[in-house]
Design a protein that fits this description.
Blueprint (H helix, E strand, L loop, with lengths): L2 H11 L6 E4 L3 E4 L4 E9 L2 E8 L4 E5 L1 H8 L3 H11 L6
Antiparallel strand pairs: 1-3, 2-3, 3-4, 4-5
Length: 91
């Protein structure tokens, strides 16, 4: 990861989203096309997985039920989501 990516990650990590009481350290995955940071956080309603996309500054908190629904999707479902996001006319 570049120094800029680490610096950006640290500034985001210093700020807990509304309702988050504590959080683990960030980790991440990426390739030449995309990168996502993730960490486990705790709210008063339980643990969540926080995802953060530095490129767009998008963030989301997912609970166990949302993650279970994602895990049950087919690869074709994700192919459709990616195509739609990229503006494919086939989507």
């Amino acid at each position: 990861m570049s120094d800029e990516g680490i610096a950006g990650q640290e500034s985001v990590a210093a700020q807990l989203p509304t309702g988050v009481e504590r959080a683990e350290e960030w980790d991440g995955i990426g390739n030449e096309f995309a990168g996502v940071q993730f960490r486990k956080v705790w709210t008063r309603n339980g643990a969540r997985l926080q995802l953060y996309v530095p490129k767009t500054e998008a963030t989301v908190l997912l609970d166990a039920m949302a993650l279970e629904v994602l895990a049950e999707q087919t690869p074709e479902f994700f192919t459709h989501l990616i195509a739609t996001r990229l503006g494919s006319e086939d989507a």
